[in-house]
Write a structure and sequence with these properties.
272 residues, alpha/beta, Rossmann fold, 5-stranded parallel β-sheet, 5 strands
Amino acid sequence: MFMQSLLGSDFRTYFENMLKLNPLWLFIHIPKTAGSSLNAELVPILSPSFHIFVDYSQVGERPFGDLLDEAVDRFIAAAKTKRYSYATGHIRSGHVDCIVATLPDVLPITLLREPVARFVSDYRYQCSDMHPGHEHFSAQHPTIDSYLELPEERNKASGALLPQTLRDHGNVAACVDHLLATYGFIGIQEQYALSLRLITTLAGEPRRPKVFKRVNAPDAKNGVKLTPEQEARIRADNALDVAIYTDIASRFQKISGDLEAYLNIVDPLAIE
């Protein structure tokens, strides 16, 4: 898409190209990246919207991957008869490719988060009352050490955003190039307010954060204090996520001041 212009501080080119679009915004929601808060902000201004979700009552009876594939198929079928402005879900790269190939004018966007913080937050969420299966999860994984043993919990961001061939090869530069070519916008959770402001400016209703969803404060059940060894293991087990995040987040942080200043010019009414 146009991320190279944005990260290269060519804001005028980025916004001119993006504002020419009338897209179906497709938010790939990586767990614990402020995605629920982002959805709550965007759904009211990008209507009609569609939530791609799995019926968790069927999980265990059938493979989760099959259920997710069917959820994506339901969205595609619905979008062929109704023009949606926004769709979101915990979907994966193959689903994104299928949606982009099947439906017109799809604009994929996503948010990244520092991988260690995201991993810990994901564990804490699944232990909390906000997660429907928290009792079963807590019984199986009473400590984060047992959670660290689950291969499917590693590299969640790259697993959602990158094709298997790129993940297997592990070439970070090639992975980043793919993301910048595929996604209309990649924000970072640590710069959530700025990321939201940019997206809502493109959507035509600039705003600052007002909604904060599924923020789970640590308590006796889900509190985690990592040892240096645990943190090192998380980084090692999520090495591709760490490398991708480090590359994109460092570029985003370098432009953040100038981008904030630019947005003050193009959407002065957003300053509250």
